Every structure is written in structure tokens, then in C-alpha cells.
Amino acid sequence: MITVAVFAFFAVLAVVSAMLVILQKNVMHSVLYLAFTVLSVAGVFFCLQAEYLGAIQILVYGGGIVVLYIFVIIIVNLKETAPERRKLFPKLFIIALPVLLLVEVATVLFRGKTTVSPGPEEGLSFPSLAEMLFSSYLVPFEVASILLLAVLIGAIIVARKKLLHDPD
Amino acid sequence: MIPINAVFALGLILFCIGLLGVLFRKNLVIMLMSLELLLNGVNVIFAGLSYHLRSPRGSIFAIFVIIMAVSEAAVGFALVLSYFRQKKTYDPDAINDLKG
């Protein structure tokens, strides 16, 4: 029962701060609410007994991505930018698409009880996750490392200033 | 035991909020943040299914989704920086060089 209460607390926190992320005018405030959302989702992961996922969420999102966002916003001086245009009457389909998706979700969820047919018991423990990651999912793991290397090189090449013809 | 419907609802609401952010906001940085929200919603559903099926496979897929999200953030920021150097704006509607 206490787990459900903690889950509900973190879920409400995550939804509210996610709403605030997209409603803020100031980009820096949005980043801070994004950090809040990410940490609340980490709490949700802990409630779902995915401790490793929660730790990775705090490390990678809270420690890496949010700091990257803050650095980019500091590097790119916001005072130089023109103010954001705001449409008073957004096009109908732009608002209809997420609303339709949400309605569909609600009908699916509250029409009846979703049954999850259990498979073979594989355990949720950390050793079972590690064993499965390094046996069944070894190839995707290696491919992910190649992806990260490609991203490293590609991000440097795209983001640097073009100095190829500059002798300095 | 946390009901699976609650987990689905949380993940899908996060996904829909992210989708709204991508569609509504006219600011490239906030659009990238909304993409992170989308991927977080998917991760919540993966973790919930992993919890209900008593299997670590959902967590493993969520780990791969996180790796993908990190890559997307890094490349997205490189693109935003090089775009900003040329155009001095965050407005995605200014990306009309190809007249698409």
C-alpha cells in the first residue's frame, strides 16, 4: 500500500512538472522543471523495482543531459534571440492529435482490466538483468557502443566552427 | 502491487505532454526537451511491464532507449548550435532553406 502511495506521489509530481516544462516562457525555468520531472520519473522507477534504471536515470539525465541543456542555454546568449512567436489560435489538427491520443488512451485504460499474461519467472534482481544483458542482448549492447562513438564524432564535427581553410 | 493501468496512464500522459510540447512550442531547445519527455514516458511503460512480468527484459530495453536519448540530445544540440550560429534564432519556422 505504501508503495502505491509513493508511486502516486511521484507520478503526480512528474506530470505536474512535465506540464510546467512546456508551459514556461523562460527556457532556463523549463530546464529546471525538466530536471524535476526526470528525478520524479527516477522515483517512479524505484517504486517499480527497477533500481538500476532509476540510478541510470539520475546519473545520465539528471547529471548529464540537464547539465548539457544548461550549458547550451548559457553558451547561446538568449538576449540575442528574437522573442518567441505565439500563435493565439493554433491549427486544429495540432491540438486534435494529442487530445485524440489521450482520449484513446483513456478508453483503452478504463474500458476494462488490462491482463498481463505472465511468462516464465525470470526475476527482477540486478544479477539476472546483468546476465541477460551480457548474454541475450550482447549484440545490441555492442551496437549501442558503436552508436555512441558515431555520435561523439558526429556531434564534434557538426558543432565546431568551420576552420578548415583557416591557417590558425 | 502497483496496478498496470496506472503505469500505462502515467507513461501515456507523459508521452502526450511531450507530444504537445513538440507540436506547440516554437523554440528548438524546448522541442528537444519535449522529446526527452516522450522517451521518458516510453521508459515508464517499459519499467512497468518489466515489473508486472517479473522479467528484466523491459529494463534492458529501457536502457537502450536511454542510450538512444543521450545520442539524440547530443546530436540535436550540435545541430541547434550550428543552426544558431547561422540564423541567430531558435525559431524552427526559420528552417526553410529547402522550401519544404
List the helices and strands and how they pair.
The complex is a heterodimer of chains A (168) and B (100).
Chain A (H helix, E strand, L loop, with lengths): L1 H22 L3 H21 L3 H25 L16 H20 L14 H8 L4 H22 L9
Helix pairs in contact in A: 1-2, 2-3
Chain B lengths: L3 H21 L3 H26 L3 H31 L13
Helix pairs in contact in B: 1-2, 2-3
Q: What order do the helices and strands of chain A follow?
A: HHHHHH
Indicate the mean pLDDT of chain A: 83
Structural class of chain B: mainly alpha
- Helix share, percent of chain A: over 70%
Instruction: Give the overall shape of chain B.
Output: elongated
**Count of individual beta strands of chain A:** 0
How much of the residues of chain B is beta strand, in percent? under 5%
Q: What integer is the average pLDDT of chain B?
A: 86
**SS-based class of chain A:** mainly alpha
Helix content estimate of chain B: over 70%
Radius of gyration of chain B: 17 Å
* Biggest interface, chains and residue tallies: A-B, 83 and 73 residues
Radius of gyration of chain A: 21 Å
How many domains of chain A? The number is: 2
What percent of residues of chain A are in strands?
Answer: under 5%
Low-pLDDT ranges of chain B: none
Biggest sheet character of chain B: none
**Shape label of chain A:** extended
